[in-house]
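Re: that chain you flagged

S.,

Sorry for the slow reply, it's been a week of failed gels. I finally had a moment to sit down with the sequence you sent. For the record, here it is as I used it:
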Amino acid sequence: MRKLNSFTFITLNGFYKGPDEDISWHKQIQGDEEDKFANDSVKSDNILLFGRRTYEMMVDWWSSEEAKKQMPEIAERISRADKIVFSRTLKHAEWENTKVISGDLIAEVKKLKQEAQKNMTILGSGNVLAQLAEYGLVDEFKIMIDPIAIPLGTPLFIDIKKPVDLKLISGKTFKSGIVLLRYQPK
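Prediction finished late last night. Pasting the structure tokens below so you have them in one place:
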């Protein structure tokens, strides 16, 4: 069975995005050390999983000339990676190596964990992550906490119906004050 992990960055007050899908607060804090971590993480060759909104933000950024100039290795690796978008509204994906799945999220991920050729990583995609976490389908959570609080936003585990009980397996503090915490289900 393949593993499913997640990588999400949040504010100190627990928001993974601000109003209008804003994540600019993260880009303002992230430095070279975090870029190296991101680059090393993308080397894992996992299948990348997204919800539609995160997919649209990712394709817009990582396909841009600015991303290719600022972070060429990451932009190339993410573009080459196998990607899956879970969406009921998106019919096809323009980004190379991307498949759209519109069926039942839980059933599809259970199937992927059984049949996929590689491990998988959910990038951002808070709604998808919360649903999969609630059903116990996420094997590891990497949560990067940025040293910033924003006035409004969407909490990471919004709309869950039962507790998601986790145990800390490691932590790392970056020079910027960003803290990376790794959790597994208890």
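What I noticed first: The longest strand covers residues 166-173.

Talk soon,
D.
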